[in-house]
Amino acid sequence: LAKTTQPISMDSYEGQEVNITCSHNNIATNDYITWYQQFPSQGPRFIIQGYKTKVTNEVASLFIPADRKSSTLSLPRVSLSDTAVYYCLVASGAGSYQLTFGKGTKLSVIP
Amino acid sequence: NAGVTQTPKFRVLKTGQSMTLLCAQDMNHEYMYWYRQDPGMGLRLIHYSVGEGTTAKGEVPDGYNVSRLKKQNFLLGLESAAPSQTSVYFCASRDPGQGAHDTQYFGPGTRLTVL
């Protein structure tokens, strides 16, 4: 299982763009990169996934450089409701039964 | 479509008591997982199942047992609860056959306190 490294915490003001970077130096060829969001007292929920280059959905964008050794989750114009813990996971899908969650990045949005 | 549900939501046990946490999913997913989450520790995998009748150990299996008699249900048992098992327990399910890889769906959690 590829190990990931993320900042433990980040602070941001409302309306700013937030970028959270995840390092995964030993990512394998078949691995995908997935980000989850967890609000207090709730289970994590899937927000975005990618393999290479850029992926965008209604919630966030995910940037993955060519070497795939890192990825950046971008949250545009954050609001107070984006305060949560964000987890980066790397795994190869159907052949990977266990998925390892690190400690995640606690994002605090300040009014 | 309720997704993943967990029963109970809260429970207080005394040391040495036993209990079973129930997880149910209505998405026909093959894989199911039990995690525990402690303050500052992220989520740690206890046990998982890749299909009906199968179970496997995760990162922190000691003190827990599981059963997957029906595809939609995954039970987590504590035979003799200890204060170290005070935690929030999350169940998740996943279908690796779907287009999105590794998308796990989580339940709302069970907050367990062992006195």
Query: How far do the termini of chain B sit from each other?
Result: 36 Å
Mean pLDDT figure of chain B: 92
Strand content of chain B: over 45%
Total helices of chain A: the number is 0
Shape of chain A: globular
How is the main sheet of chain B built? 7 strands, mixed
Largest interface: A-B, 25 and 29 residues
Helix content of chain B: under 10%
Q: Which structural category do the helix and sheet elements of chain B fall into?
A: mainly beta
Using DSSP, what is the number of strands of chain B?
11
Low-confidence stretches of chain A: none
Could you say which structural class the secondary elements and strand pairing of chain A correspond to? Answer: mainly beta
Low-confidence stretches of chain B: none
Count helical runs of chain B.
0
Number of strands of chain A: 9
| Series of secondary-structure elements of chain A, N-terminal to C-terminal | EEEEEEEEE
Task: Describe the main β-sheet of chain A briefly.
Answer: 5 strands, mixed
Oligomeric state of this protein? heterodimer
Helical fraction of chain A: under 10%
